[in-house]
Amino acid sequence: MLSKTSSPAKAGVRNDQELVDDYLKGNEKAFERLLGRHKRKVWSHIFLLVRDRELTEDIFQDTFIKVVNTLKSGRYNEEGKFLPWVMRIAHNLVIDHFRRVKKMPTVRSNEDHDVFATIAQPGKNVEQQLVNVQIDADVRKLIDHLPDEQRQVVMMRTYLGMSFKEISEHTEVSINTALGRMRYALINMRKMITEYDMTLDRM
């Protein structure tokens, strides 16, 4: 009797990694449970970024197609971090969408953490170049070389126009932490400009 009652209880609280392992062993229902467990949070995250239900559905489906393909190809190595991994895939697909349709705006912030204004301190010519182009290719390269957490904040703040409150909610950190990541990102970007002697008006 004890084993019979304990087995369903254990099955009911299987963690994400256990479900991933089950899915990789051929249990399709394990993936259905993973999807059911996390779909609302992933969908809501995408919708807040794109503000369009139809587009959200498309990116949501693309996210889980990529998840399935990665799992089945044996390239999944995010043990214990399934949801953050899925959220990162969804976020990157949103960024890819805005880049593809060339609708990613250059956001000028009223706050003290405007990436374009801050890294452009060496001179007005650089600032003008950064502000006037849609998304400067050299700036994108700088951002791509940032650590993941810093790059995510810069993308959300500068490209998607999210407030630091929204960023803190979606990255599940405090507002001060989000601000700190932005600050360190700007410091690192300025260092890269100096280190590589970059001239951002060279196109």
Number of domains: 2
The averaged pLDDT comes out at 75
CATH topology of the largest domain: Rna Polymerase Sigma Factor, Chain: A
CATH class of the largest domain: Mainly Alpha
Class of secondary structure makeup? mainly alpha
Order of helices and strands: HHHHHHHHHHH
Taking the sheet with the most strands, its summary is: none
The low-confidence runs, each spanning 5 or more residues with pLDDT under 50, are 1-11, 104-113, 118-135
Instruction: Determine Rg (CA atoms, Å).
Output: 20 Å
Which range does the strand content fall in?
A: under 5%
End-to-end gap: 74 Å
**Helical content class:** over 70%
Second CATH tier, the architecture of the largest domain = Orthogonal Bundle
Count of individual helical segments: 11
How would you sum up this structure, described in words?
- The protein has 203 residues and is an all-alpha fold.
- The chain has 11 helices and no strands.
- The longest helix has 23 residues.
- It starts with a helix and ends in an 8-residue tail after the last helix.
- The N terminus is likely disordered.
Structure, briefly:
This protein is an all-alpha fold and 203 residues long. It has eleven helices and no strands. It has helices at residues 2-12, 16-24, 28-50, 53-73, 82-101, 115-119, 124-132, 137-144, 148-159, 164-171, 175-195.
Task: Outline the secondary-structure elements.
Layout: H1 2-12, H2 16-24, H3 28-50, H4 53-73, H5 82-101, H6 115-119, H7 124-132, H8 137-144, H9 148-159, H10 164-171, H11 175-195
Helix pairs in contact: 2-3, 3-4, 3-5, 4-5, 9-11, 10-11
